[in-house]
Amino acid sequence: MDVLWETAGPLTVREVSEHLTERDLAHTTVMTVLDRLAKKGFAVRERDGRAWEYQPAASREAYVTELMLSALDQAGDRQAALARFAQSVTDSEARALRSALDAFDHRPGD
Amino acid sequence: MLAPVFVFAAVALTAVAAATMLASAAWPGRAPAAAIVLWQALGLGWGLAAVGALAALAARPEHAGVASGVMAFAAGTVARAGAPGHEPVALLVLRLAALTTAVALLALLCWVLAAACAAGLRTRRRHRALLALLARCDPKAPGALVLDHPAAAAYCVPGLRSRIVISAGTLDLLDQAELAAVLAHERAHIRERHDLVLLPFTALYRAFPRSRVTQRANQAVALLVEMLADDRARRSWPARELATALMRFGVAGAPAPPSGALAAAAAAGSQGEVVTRVTRLLMPQPGLPRPMWIAVCCSAAVLVVVPAALFVMPL
Fold first, then answer.
1. Partners of B165 in the beta sheet?
2. Distance between CA atoms of A87 and B263, rounded to whole angstroms?
3. C-beta atoms of A87 and B149 within 8 A
4. Residue A15 exposed, middle or buried by CB count within 10 Å (0-12, 13-18, 19+)
5. Residues of chain B with confidence (pLDDT) below 70
6. Which residue of B119, B126, B249 is in closest CB contact with A85?
7. Mean pLDDT of chain B
8. Which pLDDT tens digit goes with each residue over B195-206?
């Protein structure tokens, strides 16, 4: 997927293999992986003559945003799917938190 | 079978009243595990009692337990279909209506539980697939995956193939000790399967989305689960680190949302939960006194055992 995201325009299996220079992968391996990515919907493919040409289905940023929004958008629905660490606070809550922390730091008997 | 109807109805109404009170009570913060057990009992007890009350209306009186009474009624109705019955038609219709409603309610509850489970599995599968493509490992966050995004986010994908995800923004926001505390918190969620604890309440909220009780129950249990994870993290890391991590997250703010919906949802969902957790970490209160803890456990047991028993035993 990294190769598909980094290069503009559709690529054939051979062209993807050529970009994967640091790993010695067989042509069939690259073909299988691209096939699986297409089946899962992460890559789209079009036939150009005899070869398939692959493109990413969406940009990397779009997918990262999807994950972030899914993780952060837990407010109303409260799906048990994910568990995130904390939500945002209002300004007055932030002030209350800071004073609680001050009180903790300066508590007697330390 | 009138006596069981009253008992069932009493349990169901008590469960709803108790849920409303528990959602605003202060003691759960002192014993989150016990409070969660009570919540589970309230949910299960209500389900059994609501179905039971309807079923008991339909059940034949002279049988031991509502379950066998209902079976006798159903069998008898089928056998006597067409032939003149011994009881007035109105009563028969009432009984049939009650039985149908009982079955429908039971089916609804089972359905929403299955649907909530399936939705959770789908979301997690999607996350795991995307994380495999997008996330990387980083020595600063051992055991977690890092997502390249400037906003602060830390979450876990629970389940058998669990993942902990930290955004790049979080790595910049927190120091080493705070990050370790956050990771310990997320690991506690995964290890103790808090997703399963929350699942019945997500399901009940799906079944009755406009009910204030199910909304508040959902929020209350979610907060208790966070408190449990905070407690587990506090065993290995000082409370102060966890508290400052929470604060930094809280004031960092969400990324610019594409629509107003997310901002509104985030603001509405906050509801002082971060403040409650930080206060609880910095100023811990003593646990529940023994008698109160025993009372909580006994109430939980009664809420479940009484309706269950009425199904199989005569009153």
1. B145, B155
2. 11
3. no
4. middle
5. 1, 80-87, 253-271, 315
6. B249
7. 86
8. 899 999 989 988
Question: Distance between CA B186 and CA B154 in Å, rounded?
Answer: 8
> What is the phi-psi region of residue B284: left when phi exceeds 0, alpha when psi lies from -120 to 50, beta otherwise?
beta
The number of beta carbons lying within 10 Å of the beta carbon of residue B122 is 11
Q: Is A82 exposed, middle or buried (0-12, 13-18, 19+ CB in 10 A)?
A: buried
Quote the tokens at residue B267.
């603001």
Tokens representing residue B251 in the block: 């004031």
Q: How far is residue B228's CA from residue B37's CA, in Å, rounded to a whole number?
A: 12
Task: Indicate yes or no: CB of B153 within 8 angstroms of CB of A68.
Answer: yes
Q: What is the pLDDT of residues A96-108, one digit of tens each?
A: 878 877 877 776 6
Phi/psi zone of residue B254: left (φ > 0), alpha (ψ -120 to 50 degrees), beta?
beta
Q: What is the pLDDT of residue B259?
A: 40
- Closest alpha carbon to B258 in A9, A76, A72, A42: A72
Give the start-end residues of each E strand in B10-90: none
SS percent in chain A: helix, strand, coil, step 5: 50, 15, 35
Contact A54, A16 (CB under 8 A): yes
In whole angstroms, how far apart are CA B280 and each of B32, B35, B187, B223? Answer: 12, 16, 20, 12
Task: Give the residue carrying structure tokens 């290890």.
Answer: B191
Pair of tokens at residue A2: 């990294």
Within 13 Å and on the Cβ side, how many CA atoms surround B55? 26
Residue B183 · residue B191 · CB < 8 Å: no
Residue B24, Cβ neighbours under 10 Å: how many? 9
What's the gap in Å between the CA of A73 and the closest CA on chain B? 6
CA neighbours within 13 Å on the CB side: how many for A90?
Answer: 11
CA distances from A65 to A68, B13, B49, B248 (A): 5, 44, 44, 21
Q: Number of CB pairs < 8 Å for A and B? A: 169
pTM of the model: 0.84
Look-up of token digits 């969406």: A58
**Are B274 and A97 in contact (CB < 8 Å)?**
yes
Tokens of A28: 């069939």
Q: Which amino acid is at A81?
A: A
**Is B265–A84 a contact, with Cβ atoms under 8 angstroms apart?**
no
Residue with tokens 């789209």: A44
